[in-house]
Amino acid sequence: MYLLTELGAEEDYELVSYNPYAASDDERQWYVDYVHPHGTVPAMVDDGRGGAGVMLESAAICMCLAERHGRLLPQPDAMSDYLESVSFHCISVSHYCRKCSRRIADIISLVHLFFL
Ligand SMILES: N[C@@H](CCC(=O)N[C@@H](CS)C(=O)NCC(=O)O)C(=O)O
Question: How far apart are CA 6 and CA 4, in angstroms?
């Protein structure tokens, strides 16, 4: 959503809310069957992919939108830095973020168990 705002393209897309943490079993099943096989967000239903296709992975969606709107793109001589940086954040940083958030959740559970 932030990227669409930055691109000035909010009107070009319809935002459909889906909260994987609050979805009912039926909603989740529909989402997995028709939108995203992993059941996670985001996903972009994209009519411009040779018929209605669904694009997955937030970084790929962001790079595709930037490319399509011709904005927020690197200079050609900075392309390798751009791809390296996006890959680093998606693979390495998000890996550690997930580990951290799991640890924090474990610590909160222990605090609840022992002190509350
Ligand atoms: N690599 C994926 C990760 C997607 C992801 O894990 N999304 C989280 C929200 S930020 C989610 O949907 N979690 C729900 C779940 O794991 O069931 C991407 O960047 O799109």
Answer: 5
The two structure tokens encoding residue 101:
């958030």
Residue 105 has pLDDT above 80, yes or no: no
In this prediction, residues 11-27 reach a mean pLDDT of 94
Residue to probe by mutation, ligand 1, list 40, 94, 98, most atoms within 8 Å of CB: 40
Pocket test for ligand 1, best of 2, 38, 41, 87 (most atoms within 8 A of CB): 41
1-73 falls under which CATH superfamily? Glutaredoxin (3.40.30.10)
> How remote is the C-alpha of 90 from its chain's centroid?
10
**Domain locations along the chain:** 1-73, 75-116
